[in-house]
Amino acid sequence: MKPMFRGLYGFALIAAGIHFAVPQVARAAEPPAKIALTGARIIPVVGEEIDSATILIEHGKITAVGSDVRIPFDAMEIDCSGKVIMPGLIEPQSWRGLDVPNETLPVAPFLDVADAMDPSRLYFEDALRDGITTIHVIQADSTVIGGVSRAVRPIGLTPDEMAVAVNLALKLSISPRGGYDRMQQMATFRETFRELDEYIETIAEQKYEESLTKENKKVDVGPAEARERGRKLLTDADYDDKHLNLMRLKRGDLIAWINVGAAMDVAPAVKLATEQGFIGKSVFALGSDTFKAIGELKQAGRPVILPEDLYHRERDSVTGEIRETFIPSKVHEAGLMFALQPNPNSSMAERYLTYQAALCVRHGIPRQTALEAITLNAAKMMGLDDRLGSIEAGKVANLTIYSGDPLDFNSWVEQVYIDGILAYDRSDDPRLEELLRLEGVAKQADEAKRKAAEEAKKESAPAEGQNATPPPTEEAKPAEGTTPAEGARPRRSAGGGR
Amino acid sequence: MSRLRLLAPLLGRGEDASALRTCVATACVFAMSLLLGLAPIAAAADGPTLAIRAGRIMPVAPGLDWVIEDGVILIVDGRIVEVGPASSVMIPADVPVTRLPDATIMPGLVAASSNLVGPHRGEPTISADYRAIDAFDLYDDYRAILASGVTTVHLSPGWHRLVSGQGAVVRLGGPAGQRVLRESSDLTITLGESVFNPPNLVEFLTKPSPDNAIQPAQRQRPSTRLGQFLALREAIAAATSPRAPGAEFDHQSEALGRLWSEKRPLRVQAHLAQDIAGALAFLAASGRTGYLVGGFEAADVAADLRAAGLPLVYTIDAPLRSPGGNVGSDPDALVPDVEDLSVLEGVRLALALSDGSLGDLRLAAATALRSGLSEQTVLEAITRVPAELLGVADRVGSLAPGTVADLLVLSAEPLATTTHVQRVYVGGRLAYDINVRPEQPGARPMADRPLVVRGGTIWRGPNDWLSDGQVLIEDGRIVSVGKRVPVPAGARVIDAGPDAFIAPGFIDGFGHLGLEGDNGALAPNLSLAPLYGVSEVMDHRVASAGVTTVVAGPYRFHGRGSRLTAVKTYRPLPRSERSEIVRDTAAVAFDVRGSDPKSIANSLKQPLDAGKKYLETWQKYEKDLAEWEKKKAEGKLEPVEKPKTEEVAEQKVEEDPITGTWTVRASGGPIPEPVDGKVALNLRGTQIEGRLIEPVEATETNHKITGTLSGKKVSGTVEIDAPVELPAPPFWEGEIVEPDHIKGTAGLRGIIQVDIELRRVDKESKQFSVARTRRKTTGEDGRPLPPPIDENLEPIRALLTNRIPALVSVSTSREIEEVLAVLADQYKIEHIVLLGAEEARLAAEKIREKKAGVVLPPSVLRAEKRQPYLQGDDLVRRGIPVAFQSDAEDGARTLPSVGLYAVNRGMSAEDVLEAMTIAAAKMYRIDDRVGSIEPGKDGDLVIFTGHPFDAASRIERVIINGEEVR
User: Fold this and answer.
1) Taking the CB of residue B43, how many other CB atoms lie within 10 A of it?
2) Residue B129 has what DSSP assignment?
3) Chain A residues within an 8 Å CB radius of B440
4) How many CA atoms lie within 13 A of A178 on its CB side?
5) Chain B residue with the nearest C-alpha to that of A223
6) From CA B354, how far away is CA B362, in angstroms rounded?
7) Model confidence at A11, in pLDDT bands (50, 70, 90)?
8) Phi, psi (deg, nearest 5) at residue A84
9) Angle at Cα B168 formed by Cα B166 and Cα B174, nearest 5°?
């Protein structure tokens, strides 16, 4: 049981065939029935961290967590001693799975990111390597109202196969899209929702008329009453694509994923969401200076997604001094729930969620809060916290196994389990291996491996005849046994310091 | 009983009881109303509570004085509660007071037009739903605009659409939550070329299909002047009538309908007379109110505007920052007509800038003065009137009680060109301060702000009165004096008023400031300068009296001369060496008063000769150095030779009368008892060389003896490593009275003399090497080295080189003549100051000839042959410069009154002023620093309410080194 995930899926596709039962997520291959990960330190995010504990996974779901879990005889037992298991990380928003970040239409709620997703993007593989098990794919900010989003896992060959949850959120941007100014942006919002009301009234009246026509009756009431009656008869099928998703947004079936890129956008965002009735289902994605309106954000009390660069730097217009603000501290002090996102534009360590969390800890935010900000909080924002975001019995077995503490920058992502499937294994990561070989690290590892094998031979020689078959993961171990020198870790240690 | 008496008036038993009762009742009512008035404000606004007391307040509020001199603004929780003269406004004890005595305070400016946001990029010609407030960043830092004085701004959606959208009114400072005054203040309609030919509208179709065909781009109106009114009426008609069934929903039209039926004030933007006329007609026809913005040609239709009662925001086209563009030969080019705006006087007028910029609003408005508007109209046009037009006059635009405390602290009159905004308060909070400067290298710290002093008369120097002048002081020095000087941003401006007389700081020609009664004579190597630390109460008294410089010296002068130090009387922290001490050694002072005129020459000669000798070593050095440098420049420098040790062959001379060891006995003179010692002498030819070998202490210092033998007489010198440099080495001379016995004298010539007697005890030649190391006279490269500095003689050297004057305390004409003869004739000293010189009158010719000055005796008037004699006046008339002296410590504070008395007794006020300032400065050659109001000199000014020697004049302010004495 050490398949390469791409191989697995390729095989599974051919073997099982694919049925595009949307929105039913295609299940390519069943995970092993029962797995027990033993001996690891577990950071469940919910509750205390447990040393040398066991996680029992049955059919892709966690069924038990603890230090005294009875391991069923038929479970595949995997020794994870010395390692640390975290819930799989969640990237709260990303357009990088899409071919383009945004469509040109300013108001396009009928769009679905699924149509633009490209599962072959290396981005997904990178995400996996970085320990991310769930990605919220949503359009970028150059829009007024964008399409619907979906949560995906970074494995699978089609958007539907990848899907964790579909029709999740609708993108709104208060900050003006490219080519727009704020007056135009806000006027467009007002127009869109005003037009929606008009549209609903129109189709409601039509619906009522139609319902009467079926019964061969004539309209017997005034237009206002007809609209009122027709409204009750309306079903989702009566709406066109554009208005349906707006209607869903207003009904609360879609989360309002609102980009508030500047402090001045907060008040309009809250006003719009309140007027249109979706403030209770809103998530605010903040820009660099949005924290300045922390009072309004606090009052709104909605969860926020922090910008990729956690520092806001500003030059004083008069004195010329540069002031630096660490945004998470402001948000944490206000008591708001927040999620962190990796900064893929940074060539430094900010591209790792764990680094972003570690930065928060360094700035005095409690470790627990920082860990929640890269796991559970994003799940809560997407309404998927019943399934994702922590290690608890009943949740999906999305696990990231680290060689050490996840916030320690010397730790590697060793394995990633998604739905109980071993989706990533560092010992079988050809790209990483190639990269490290370029750096001469793999060579050292090979050498160490050879030596270890020789020694093992010598030791096992007297005990010939006994069952000396190494466990399946054994092959990976020598590489770990000889941890490469720190300086030879090119990507991980490059931006460690700030 | 006594308590009852106190209460009696209140109880109504006193005579004026009813009046008192009324007073009490009024006070109670007032207090209650104040409390009632305060309560909601305190609850509503959160802002600081403070009082500002300023030199001048211009409230621009109806019902309040136009100008309140020395006024107070009481601000409670960020709102103005009371404005009035300092005498009438009661400031509660716990309210902090900001004092700005030189400042003018006015309300923050209200810009009725701006380009802060917009224009929006929407395409519909009817853009009623575009709201300027959407584009306003509440959180931005607007200090750059606040710095120009603008605190309230109208946000315009643009000038580019027939119905451009909705304007808003905001403040540019304070917490974000308090910045928006009106979210939607008006419906903006623009007329004229700028709205013609709007872009064609293209509708995006989400799913084009045969049923839902792509429509061609829709053309929009207007494209002509007539069309704009047509389009407007059509749009309003469409917006206000119910939508036809099946008609497409038009959001902008709906918004227009809503705003129109709400009777939102109309803001009509138009420049040309025909558009303005059209707008008037349109407004009249539609029965709407509003105001006009733009109005380049408003003067042409002023009468119509007045008749219609339509207010106007006249936009000034002021290309202030750089020259404007070319207009060319186009006769229809839009050129503002600012020839005569006085025709607009009857129109409610606000002023703004045509390009919507905000930085120069105050200056641009000031230029409207030249177009015939009155100062009041202009000031109101950038404060109260625009606030009223924008519907925010209850909160901003004036300093009326109840408004928020948005106010400007100006350096001078609001509309003066050189006036700068120094501070801006928004809601009582300091939102901008010009003195918070960038922390860049070389940036001026706050203490050294430039200072501009203006006044009716500036006394630049004798008979050089500048009326209505200004002085600019930077870094403690006068930079510019004139009718109009540069006024740098951030400069503090002191307006002394038209009656003020600004004089240079007074100089005390001779005083003892800081000596605190110590009457010891001061040795010439000591200076008083280290005495002067941070000014104390005594210094302060003198400074406040207008005496800014004191030439200070000891009560008694040393025989070899004492130094005088010229020092400033105000020395605040942080200290600056340069500005506090005008001259470390301003003069060398001698006293010949009362001595035998014959001995004057002798007593002066000793120090002067020593100084001359010392000077010669310097002159030699300077000559050598010059030569050396010349050679070096020419490349003719000879390589430095190692000094050769002179080898002198020992010559044993038979019958040598000198060589050997001698006992010495010195007696007489100042030595109370004879002193014994031993010397060893050698004779080479006629040259004697030797040294003192006993007493031991003396031996250690290697006192070398040299001399010559001529016949039986010997004479020579003794080299002594004396702790002080002697005017000349001690001499010794004698005669061989019998073999092995010399009798003679030794000592310092003219100072001490002792008898010596030597007896030879040994004829053996004592070999000794002269261990005394001679000072190096050349450097490594052969460069001549300067001689050692002798602090005792340095002042004399300065005197002999005519860098400083000699001050000689004299009284009689004989003394004066003798002193002048010695100093001027013998030693060629050019600068001589006579102290006292009561009989100067008798030696006037000589004094004048030698260009000497006289520091008058402390008493200006005395009886001479029973007649009152005013020495100062007499000497001035005889052409002799005079100065006044206090001859006191902090008694110098009364010097100006002495001047007043001198004037009273007949001396010209101009002469007294000259004597107290530039004449004294010139005498001591400190006129490069003090004495007149000229560029380059120290910023020492005394501001009088009138001429300094008018009895009614008093000192208003004293400024020393650019800092006001407080």
Assistant:
1) 9
2) T
3) 320
4) 8
5) B245
6) 13
7) very low
8) -125, 130
9) 160
- How far apart CA A98 and CA A95 sit, in angstroms, is 5
Residue that wins the pLDDT comparison between B469 and B449: B469
Angle of helix A182-214 relative to helix A266-275, nearest 10 degrees? 10
The 3 state secondary structure assigned to B780-799 is: CCCCECCCCCCCCCHHHHHH
Q: Six-digit token pair at A305? A: 């997604």
CA distance A175 to A173: 5
Residues 155-184 of B with CB under 8 A from A: 157, 165, 176-177
Contact status, residue B634 vs residue B823, Cβ threshold 8 Å: no
Q: Which of A181, A289, A321 has its CB closest to that of B439?
A: A321
Residue type, A233: L
Tokens of B61: 């509020």
Chain A interface, mutation test: which of B206, B252, B421, most A Cβ atoms within 10 Å?
B206
Order across the sheet with B312-316: list the strands: B109-111, B150-155, B163-171, B180-190, B266-270, B290-294, B312-316, B349-353
Contact list in B for residue A267 (CB cut-off 8 A) is 138
Rounded distance, CA A483 to CA B192, Å? 77
Evaluate if residue B38 carries a pLDDT over 70: no
- Both tokens assigned to A49: 């961290």
Q: Is the whole model's pTM more than 0.90, yes or no? A: no
B329 contacts B310 by C-beta, under 8 angstroms: no
Does residue B433 sit at the A interface (CB-CB below 8 Å)? no
The β-bridge partners of B675 are: B666
* One-letter amino acid of B407: L
Amino acid in position A225: E
What tens digit of pLDDT does each residue of B79-113 get?
Answer: 999 999 999 999 998 899 999 988 999 999 999 99
B821, B773 contact by CB (below 8 A): no
Taking residue A295's Cβ as centre, other Cβ atoms within 10 Å add up to 13
Residues paired with B407 in a beta bridge: B107, B425
Note the helical H segments in B802-943: 813-820, 844-849, 871-877, 895-904, 909-916, 918-923
Look up tokens 């002498």; give the residue: B681
Residue B320 confidence (pLDDT) above 60: yes
Cα–Cα distance between B83 and B59 in angstroms, integer? 8
Tokens of A53: 């504990």
At B471, is the secondary structure helix, strand, or coil?
strand
Confidence of residue A103 (pLDDT cuts 50, 70, 90): confident
C-alpha B289/C-alpha B287 separation (Å) is 7
What residue type is A492 in one-letter code?
R
Q: Are strands A132-137 and B266-270 parallel, antiparallel or unpaired?
A: unpaired
B815 three-class SS: helix
The span from the CA of B508 to the CA of B931, in Å, is 11
